[in-house]
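Design a sequence for this backbone.
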């Protein structure tokens, strides 16, 4: 990123010269029922104490279970759940121990919970205005709550015709399938945001609701813009309902800060925390960011200050964001008394500029040169030829320090006599 950011232009929908409809992101805090709040905070204290004990022992494997439980149970409190920690016997063992930590009670499947009641009221109001609604859920696998949401919409919202877009549908068939369902009168789409995050437009659903926050920040940002496309002609609204003073509250808080920081990078100067743009450190993982927030013990701020109407408040003069280097101001050529400089300026079109202070300081304080190596110690060498070897009977040449050692005599063994053995 740092290699290309200084010569990159980010182009958004505001820069195409077309008046886009209003786009608004709305956080909606909701209070839990007293019995829900009691069980939630009791579980949070119990799981938090166990997590602290595990981390003191050097084991952080329970952190994921802790976060998933506190994020998922408030949206599905009708379901009882046993919180079990699968812990390794030791670090090098493949044997796991199942340690029961806490029992989350089920509060019943025959009642409406606060967030569900809010969702039904919103869908009823939006359909009355002729606006279809898309509902995003995270628990769509083994803990699937899509059938319950579909049943509640059919039972409590008149004229509502919900449809569940499942993950078993191939990506290339999803857009055509949604189009077919729209032709049959479907006005409420229920799906996982990961299925529509990229490559699928939801222009016919100008109201989107994140009934649950996804773990991926990238998925949330992409899915929230599925209705606000270039061909959209109606105002778009994205709702983030959450239970106040819960882990879900911190998750939506984090989403708001990350979107503010990302928009600031893209050239949207509506405000936000540039210091919250962690880049490669975050990795787009909501669970990892929440884990960091737990370590820092961060408090939840007012979410209405974090979600801004970026499409309307963006300054068009700064929508194409770039970085330019300042140019040096030229001096008047006549101020220089050098004829060579005057010729270069007037005849060759050159420009005389002032030298910067850094150059003057560099001249005053030149960089230190490396210390010279000590001189090598010279060794006197004597060239000796084979012709310098004295012959037999001659005196050796008088050379200083010439070796006088004589060659040792070599003993020659006599050749043995060869005799022939006669066989006859």
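Sequence:
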């Amino acid at each position: 990123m740092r290699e290309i950011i200084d010569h990159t232009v980010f182009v958004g929908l505001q820069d195409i010269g077309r008046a886009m409809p209003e786009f608004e992101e709305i956080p909606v805090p909701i209070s839990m029922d007293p019995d829900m709040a009691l069980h939630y905070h009791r579980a949070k204290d119990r799981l938090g104490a166990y997590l602290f004990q595990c981390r003191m022992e050097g084991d952080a494997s329970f952190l994921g279970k802790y976060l998933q439980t506190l994020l998922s149970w408030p949206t599905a409190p009708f379901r009882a759940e046993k919180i079990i920690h699968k812990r390794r016997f030791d670090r090098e063992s493949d044997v796991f121990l199942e340690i029961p930590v806490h029992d989350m009670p089920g509060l019943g499947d025959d009642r409406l919970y606060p967030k569900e009641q809010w969702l039904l009221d919103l869908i009823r109001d939006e359909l009355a205005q002729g606006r279809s609604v898309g509902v995003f859920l995270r628990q769509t696998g083994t803990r699937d709550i899509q059938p319950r949401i579909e049943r509640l919409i059919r039972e409590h919202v008149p004229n509502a015709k919900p449809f569940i877009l499942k993950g078993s549908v191939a990506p290339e068939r999803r857009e055509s399938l949604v189009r077919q369902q729209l032709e049959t009168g479907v006005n409420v789409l229920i799906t996982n945001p990961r299925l529509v995050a990229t490559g699928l437009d939801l222009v016919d659903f100008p109201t989107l609701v994140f009934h649950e926050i996804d773990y991926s920040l990238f998925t949330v940002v992409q899915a929230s813009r599925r209705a606000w496309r270039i061909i959209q002609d109606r105002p778009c609204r994205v709702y983030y309902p959450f239970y106040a003073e819960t882990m879900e509250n911190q998750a939506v808080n984090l989403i708001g800060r990350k979107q503010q920081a990302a928009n600031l990078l893209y050239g949207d100067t509506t405000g936000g925390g540039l210091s919250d743009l962690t880049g490669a450190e975050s990795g787009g993982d909501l669970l990892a960011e929440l884990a960091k927030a737990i370590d820092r013990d961060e408090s939840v701020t007012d979410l209405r200050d974090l979600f801004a109407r970026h499409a309307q408040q963006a300054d068009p003069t700064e929508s194409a964001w770039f970085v330019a280097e300042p140019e040096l101001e030229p001096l008047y050529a006549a101020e220089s008394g050098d004829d060579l400089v005057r010729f270069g300026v007037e005849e060759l079109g050159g420009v005389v500029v002032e030298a910067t202070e850094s150059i003057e300081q560099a001249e005053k304080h030149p960089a230190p040169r490396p210390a010279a190596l000590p001189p090598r110690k010279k060794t006197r060498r004597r060239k000796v030829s084979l012709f310098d070897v004295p012959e037999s009977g001659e005196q050796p040449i008088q050379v200083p320090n010439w070796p006088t050692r004589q060659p040792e005599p070599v003993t020659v063994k006599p050749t043995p006599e060869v005799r022939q053995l006669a066989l006859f």
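Residues 270-283, 299-336, 356-360 have pLDDT under 50 and may be disordered.
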